[in-house]
Amino acid sequence: MSIPDDVSTVDLTDPRTFEENDLRAYWRQLRTTRPLHWHPPTGDAPGFWVISRYADVMALYKDNKRLTSEKGNVLVTLLAGGDSAAGRMLAVTDGAPHRNLRNVLLKAFSPQALKPITDRVRENTTRLVVEAVRRGECDFATDVAEHIPMNTISDLLGVPTADREFLLNLNKSALSSNEEGQSATDAWLARNEILLYFNELVAERRAKPTEDVISLLANSTVNGEPLSEEVIVLNCYSLILGGDETSRLSMIDAVRTFSEHPDQWQLLRDREVTLESATEEVLRWATPAMHFGRRAVTDLELHDQVIAAGDIVTLWNSSANRDEEVFADPYVFDLNRSPNKHITFGYGPHFCLGAYLGRVEVNAMLDALRTYSTGFEITGEPQRIHSNFLTGLCGLPVRFQPDEAALAAHDGGDGARA
Ligand code: HEM
């Protein structure tokens, strides 16, 4: 469907807008002629500002003095009037409490601390890709990608293997993005079950600490005070919220994109591009988190207009990552793109805590695909998620062409394969 000339008729709160339209012309028009666009109110929800240029998105991400995340940081919570975890969960906390909590968590997120986790990401990804390629056909979303981020976060948090499937299913309901028909009550119940689950795990780790993030949080202090159980539980959950679906959607998008760009797949296969460079372009191209948002705490001026204190401001990564002022030929998928300072992980004080981990996951996936498969084709209709925040696929039927030599070498390396 094409986009009407009047941009104010495009409803960014409605997930169907993203499913049914090609929004390229819309974003181009906003970037060129309306860099500060007032999105009209929809139903009972208030209107909000739409920021589409890369430079503005960066500047506003950075500005946590005049803009706050404590009234919500995505459209759903901003329009509903706030986030119940504000001031306690990292992403919706500002000022000194945010800095203190982030400093505690950063200890667990340094590349060095993450080494055992990233080693397991590579093992797990290789195993899943080898199994899928050997089977020939699979749903790449549910058979492969779905099992990587949740296992990674579970490794990080120290969630026992037996509980992981249960958590994954709860999380799918909690985000309510896979199914259009799912009720808000189901999502709320699932979120509460996740919080209850972590409550128990925190109590266990307080009593008997191990090497995981829950133990770290349970035994850290801020200004001499231990973190409350509630803060720990909410922040465990925030790692799942932040790290599961975003990474999963990036990997799934990579497979779909390569099937549409065989020349770029060949570059990857032939090792004519580094995995690092390919990872960055895959992340720019996918931009799984389309927007984040803030509320203004004071009046501020932008493009000769006033954003008033109390207004909702949305920052569109999906547009900023295609800004022709910053990216040459932004609508070209180019694994050798350099520079590639995409904004997929945000910017400034709330810059993604899991960016390194997200990159490792995508990097491991590209490495496994190029090693064990000579190519692949999409064999059925991809299934889109239903969301005004995240974009991507939750179903992608794929047929792989195996690299027999690489599979044989893998078997040899594995030792005991039948
Ligand atoms: C923050 C994207 C992976 C945990 C953010 C933000 C973005 C983002 C754009 C900024 C939010 C804001 O400014 O309001 C992504 C993408 C990922 C990814 C695209 C994967 C491709 C992860 C992973 C984890 C994680 C793997 C953890 C295991 C977080 C947390 C925050 C955050 C805790 C809040 C940081 C803060 O407020 O200080 N992410 N993320 N993310 N992300 Fe990620």
From TrEMBL:
GO BP terms: cholesterol catabolic process
Pfam families cross-referenced by the UniProt entry: p450 (PF00067)
Keyword Metal-binding: yes
InterPro entries with a match to the protein in the record: Cyt_P450, Cyt_P450_B, Cyt_P450_CS, Cyt_P450_sf
Any one GO MF annotation of this record: iron ion binding
Keywords: Heme, Iron, Metal-binding, Monooxygenase, Oxidoreductase
UniProt xrefs under SUPFAM superfamilies: Cytochrome P450
CDD domains reported for this sequence: CYP142-like
PROSITE patterns per the UniProt record, alphabetical: CYTOCHROME_P450
Family membership: Belongs to the cytochrome P450 family.
This protein's name: Cytochrome P450
Source organism of the structure: Streptomyces nodosus
